[in-house]
Amino acid sequence: MYRNASGFGRALRNAAVVLLCAVVGGGLLAACGSGENKEPPPSPSGTQGAASTAPAAGANSPEPAGERKVKDELGHELVVPASPKRIFAPYLEDSLLKLGLKPVAQWSNGNQALEYLQEELKDVPKLDLSTGLPSPEVLLSYNPDLIILHTSSYAGNGVYENYSKIAPTYVFNNASGNIEKSLLALGELVGKQAEAEQALKAYRDKAETAKKKLEQAVGGKKVAILRFAPKGVSLMGANYLCGYVVHQDLGLGRSKLVEKENSANITLEILPELDADYIFVINQYGQGTERLREMTESPVWKSIPAVKQGHVYELNDMHWLGSGLIAYEKMIDDTLKLLVQ
After folding, report:
1. What strands lie across the sheet with 312-314, from one edge to the other?
2. What is the pLDDT of residue 65?
3. How many CB atoms within 10 Å of residue 309?
4. Prediction pTM value
């Protein structure tokens, strides 16, 4: 039917910090379960917000040596270490690795972490975020000196207020909305500006080289990226994540169904309108199997020209739903392998 294309020594803070946590009291611990669970964006190519006050130095007090005052994308002012060493930044592992850094814990859904990063993160403990962010006392056990939240939805329900009492907490509006912008902001935040700029240049060079090869091999052809999930099937547009890579960075055409949309719901009734020469299939974390079987076994699916020609490829869901340049580079490699003969 289709072809497969991819084959926390400090247990707690020192006594002073523990005392501080006790002083903070029940208000902090009462929010243990707070934090909205956000499914990993599927990330690429954002900012707005409400102001808050800095948890550390006063507005007119001098910054301690080795620290800097910054403002996050929601308007919070905070004082951060010049060179943070223990960073908690769930779902930003890809970008941290690009800057030569490792987090104190890595995002996971149950026991399933970002598979494509496991060689680099094999010694980093997994932290299950399937039911929300960790409680303050769990996070405190990792002794972070900087907390970074990749989306504003993570900061709600008192999470920001609680986390900022543990360590400086920086919040992105949506780090997955524009990977290049987010990487530069992250580089500046952690004192790795040069590394961020170098990584971006290498990525842009790689994308430009691949784009030229694709123009020669399949110039003018359209690619449809179908994401199968428990709630339905969506056609990825060109404004974020893998859709951005394929359609913006690599210049491949997209279906009229997403010419002006970030994504489109695809049903059997709409399927005949899917104009694409190639179809990329993503089974989201293996949770879209039922939807995938239902659609691909239908006569409507089998009647699509791309299907008849054998131009349907199932992709690695982990890096094709990834949010960072490492994932993007792997997407480029896959696309060249599939479409450039």
Report:
1. 3-4, 312-314, 278-283, 223-229, 232-236, 263-265
2. 57
3. 10
4. 0.80
